[in-house]
Design brief:
Length: 299
């Protein structure tokens, strides 16, 4: 369901209709408020908490239903009743105002599933990227990068590429932090001192990894043929290329969980909620990718 006052419910319903209630061998279920999803009551898993939603005007009073919907869906996946979870966007500030203790979906899902470390990937047919650091000031990024986090994140990505995307011998490209990956230390020491040793440790484990690479030449068409995913050092380094290449069909994927989880790569779009203007392509892509990942895990 996501934020009931945003576009989440309407793109969920539109995507449900697009697929005719089934994607591949997987029947689709909607999780949320019974009144909000009344038109698909035969495919509904309702929340106990009720919603009074006004399009474009999120209300902390609806937070209980939003988080309950996520909890119900996660339990369905953990119990084996569902093959994958696709989440509509939530409105973090409204949830936080209601006492939600997590920065966002990813951290909440890690908590609910007991995952040691959850990793956010943005994926499309053109590109897969992972930002090592996400929502933090650029000034704080260098201090947040350490060898262990680069190594652990790279390992999670490579494991997921094999398990969830069916890539037998996955290849990872790692971007440098500084321009030209530090240019032998002239433009910064982090690439040689931190990122390169983490890459060496991944290679020692038998993984196909290259880098640190200059980010300005990492995303053109020919370069993208040389890897299956790119690990970037900060938010915009990862999200600018994929949103340039795949603005309408990019998918947010959470790696490192015991369940499959995807989400459309957009927010709640409160300014157009309830107006019939929401673009459903990213939700359709998220559902299709979730089904593909679930099938890959079952092989």
């Amino acid at each position: 369901m996501g934020e009931p006052s945003g576009i989440g419910p309407e793109v969920a319903l539109a995507a449900f209709a697009h697929f005719g209630g089934k994607v591949g061998s997987h029947p689709l279920k909607l999780v949320g408020d019974a009144q909000l999803f009344a038109s698909v009551s035969n495919a509904l898993i309702p929340t106990n908490s009720k919603v009074a939603a006004v399009p474009g005007k999120p209300d902390p009073a609806n937070a209980a239903a939003v988080t309950e919907a996520i909890e119900i869906a996660v339990k369905q996946c953990l119990d084996g009743a569902a093959a994958a979870l696709v989440t509509a966007p939530i409105h973090k500030s409204v949830l936080n105002a209601a006492g939600f203790a997590f920065p966002g979906h990813t951290e909440f899902l890690a908590h609910l599933t007991g995952a040691r470390r959850a990793v956010m990937m943005l994926a499309s047919d053109a590109l897969r990227v992972v930002p090592l650091t996400i929502h933090m000031p650029v000034a704080d990024v260098p201090r947040a990068i350490d060898k262990q986090s680069v190594f652990e994140t790279g390992e999670i990505i490579l494991t997921a590429l094999r398990r969830d995307f069916g890539i037998l011998n996955p290849r990872l490209a790692v971007a440098g932090l500084n321009p030209h990956a530090g240019e032998d230390g002239v433009l910064g020491s982090e690439d040689e001192a931190i990122i390169a040793p983490a890459i060496a440790a991944l290679k020692a484990r038998g993984f196909a990894v290259k880098g640190p690479l200059s980010a300005d030449t990492l995303f053109h068409e020919e370069a993208r043929k040389g890897y299956d995913a790119a690990l970037c050092m900060y938010h915009d380094q990862a999200l600018i290329p994929i949103k340039t290449l795949s603005f309408w069909d990019g998918v947010n994927v959470t790696l490192g969980l015991p369940i499959v989880r995807t989400s459309p790569d957009h927010g709640t779009a409160l300014d157009i909620a309830g107006q019939g203007k929401a673009d459903v392509r990213s939700m359709i892509a998220a559902i299709r990718m979730a089904a593909d990942m679930a099938d890959a895990r079952s092989r």
